[in-house]
Structure formats: structure tokens, C-alpha cells
């Protein structure tokens, strides 16, 4: 058997250290993800870390550092497909980006362990855990800051609810007022909500807008015949 000729106890113990390190560190990262009920939790992060460590260790055993480097390149690109499976888009919201990034980092931890860079894999795990835990209060604080419409580009929508008979007339009036205010319109849609109600939505080209001017435009539109309601909405760019 070839195994009896190629097996070396020292190399095997070294592989065990690499895999065990990846398992423990992947468990630490995965436990935090599992606690927060993310789609890629404890087992997924452990398997990613251990799998990356195993592939890199194989390359290292067969052809040395050059083989390990080639394997790492494939791990970096290949883990992207796994991470893509955790990303979901719901309307304007995108979920799972942080989970995908954590999987990518778990693969990096495993790759370091497989390359016998134990100290580096431990340090990377600390930074990953810090990013997912210690930065959370800062993220929450930033999210509470109101969007400054005057200095940041965003998606703006002007929404006018009117009766069906005045829909075409109101659409032209909306486009005219936005053109006069020098706000380029990306698209204008008319949705019929019932037999007698229509909703006209003008989506502006992403830009920085003057909220007072948008208030003035909607106030003018609200006074036109047939208009039931006029308002504007803003959302951050994706």
C-alpha cells in the first residue's frame, strides 16, 4: 500500500494541528453567527474553515508553498459562490452581505491554519469577531443619524394620488414642475389603485436634493384639481 510508504507521523500531526485550529476558530466565529440566528451559522462556518485548511494543507504537502498558494487562490474565488447563496434581495433591501463576508473570513482563517500560520489565524479570528460584535454599537449609532438630503446623493420619489380623470393631466404637471426645478426624472409611472384612483410616481435621477424645494413642488401639486395627496420619499442608494 502506498499509504505505508508515504505516511509520516510528524506531517500527520502537523495536519491535525492545522485542522484542529481551523475547527476551534471556525467554532468561535460560527457561534457568534448562530447566536444572532444568521443563515450561515455554527456548522457552516466550521466546515468552511476546516475545508479551507484541508485544501491548503493538501497543496502544501504535495508541492510545498507554491501548491498552497495556488489552492488559496481557488479557495478565495470558490468561497464567493457559497457566500452568494446567503445574499437575498427584498425590494430595496439586501440581506446577507455580512454573513457572506463572514464566510469569506472563515475561509481565510482556515487557509491560514492550513498553511501553518496558527498565530495569524488566531489574530484574524479576533478581528472577525470584533467586526461582528464590537462594531455593532457604532453601526447602530450611524444608522440613527438622519439622512442629510442636501449633501448626500439618494433616491427620491414624488408620489401623487389623484382621480383617474386627471391622471394624464397631473402626470404632465408633475414633469413640468420637476423640469422647472431642474430635477431630472429617471422614470414616471402611473398605477391605477382602483376604478377612480391613480397613483403617479416620478423617480428622480439619484442626486442631492433641496428638501424645501421638494416640499414646495408637492405643495403646489396638492392644490391642483383632482389631487387627493402629494408627497415625496427618499431612500439611500444601494
Automatic annotation (TrEMBL):
Pfam families: MgtC, MgtC_SapB_C. It is found in: Cell inner membrane; Cell membrane. The keyword Transport does not apply. Its main location: membrane. One of its GO terms (cellular component) is plasma membrane. Residues 19-139 form the MgtC/SapB/SrpB/YhiD N-terminal domain. Gene3D superfamilies: 3.30.70.260. Residues 156-232 form the MgtC-like C-terminal domain. It is a multi-pass membrane protein. Keywords: Cell inner membrane, Cell membrane, Membrane, Transmembrane, Transmembrane helix. The chain crosses the membrane at residues 12-30, 42-59, 71-88. Belongs to the MgtC/SapB family. Virulence factor required for growth in low Mg(2+) medium and for intramacrophage survival. May be involved in regulating membrane potential by activating Na(+)/K(+)-ATPase. This is Protein MgtC. The lineage of its organism: Bacteria, Pseudomonadati, Pseudomonadota, Alphaproteobacteria, Hyphomicrobiales.
